[in-house]
């Protein structure tokens, strides 16, 4: 099993256990691949739910640039909802899981 496959399995388990979501493994794999090498860097692989600049990066680089959404208050609400769903007290919020949940939230699976 490759390092990436191990990480995808870890993300799937987070989705099931912490978010109560049964993941679409094909989409999760594509989202993980879309994150590129950041998934191998401990700091870049996670999203800090309390860091405003980190959340702005998720909004600008993922929601607006990658998914092609227009900047609006809905984007901030969706990020908050996903962070809430993942669990605010959960320290390690994996970027791939957050991106997967946002992709599902906006029904943008077609981007992948």
Can you summarize this structure?
The protein is mainly alpha-helical and 112 residues long. It has helices at residues 3-19, 25-34, 52-66, 73-86, 95-105. It is globular.
Explained architecture:
This protein is mainly α. 60% of the residues lie in helices and 0% in strands. The protein contains five helices and no strands. The chain has helices at 3-19, 25-34, 52-66, 73-86, 95-105. The mean pLDDT is 94.
Strand tally = 0
User: On the 0-100 scale, what is the average pLDDT?
Assistant: 94
The biggest sheet, with number of strands, parallel, antiparallel or mixed sense and barrel status, is:
none
- Strand portion, in percent? under 5%
What's the CATH architecture name?
Orthogonal Bundle
Low-confidence stretches: none
What is the secondary structure topology, with strand pairs?
Layout: H1 3-19, H2 25-34, H3 52-66, H4 73-86, H5 95-105
Helix pairs in contact: 1-2, 2-5, 4-5
List keywords for this structure.
mainly alpha, DUF2853, 112 residues, Jann4075-like_sf, DUF2853 domain-containing protein, Recoverin, domain 1
């Amino acid at each position: 099993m490759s390092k990436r496959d191990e990480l995808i399995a870890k993300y799937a388990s987070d989705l099931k256990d912490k978010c109560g979501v049964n993941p679409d493994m094909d989409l999760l794999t594509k989202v993980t691949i879309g994150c590129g090498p950041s998934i191998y860097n401990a700091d870049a692989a996670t999203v800090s739910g309390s860091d405003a600049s980190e959340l702005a990066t998720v909004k600008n680089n993922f929601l607006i640039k990658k998914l092609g959404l227009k900047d609006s208050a809905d984007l901030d609400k969706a990020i908050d909802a996903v962070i809430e769903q993942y669990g605010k007290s959960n320290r390690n919020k994996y970027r791939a899981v957050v991106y997967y949940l946002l992709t599902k939230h906006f029904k943008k699976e077609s981007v992948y």
